[in-house]
Amino acid sequence: MSLKYLSILLTVTIVFSMDIYSGGKLSLIQNNMDVHYYDIHLTVDSEKKIIHGYVELGINVKDTTIKGLELDLIDQFDISKIKVNALMSSFSHNNNKITISPTSLVHSNTIRIYYSGKPPEANNPPWGGGFSWESDSLGYPWIGVSCQTNGAHIWIPCIEHPSDEADSVDLFITTSKHLVVAGNGLLIDTTADNNQTTWHWKTTYPISAYNINFTIGKFQLIEKDLNLKNPTHLQYFVLQEYLEGSGYIINEAEKYLKFYESLFGAYPWSNEKFGMVQTPYWGMEHQTIIAYGNNYKIRKPGYDFLLLHEMGHEWWGNYLTVHDWADFWIHEGITIYAEALFIEENFGIDAYHEFFKKTVRSKISNNIPIVPKQNAISQDVKGLDVYYKGAMVLHMLRYLIGKEKLISILNTTLHSEKSLSHNHVSTQDFIDITNEITSEDFGWFFDVYLKKKDPPKLVIKNRWKTKTINWENPNFLMPIEIETFNGEIVKIQPGKRKIKNVKRVDPTQWILFN
Question: What is the CATH number of domain 321-449?
Answer without folding.
Answer: 1.10.390.10
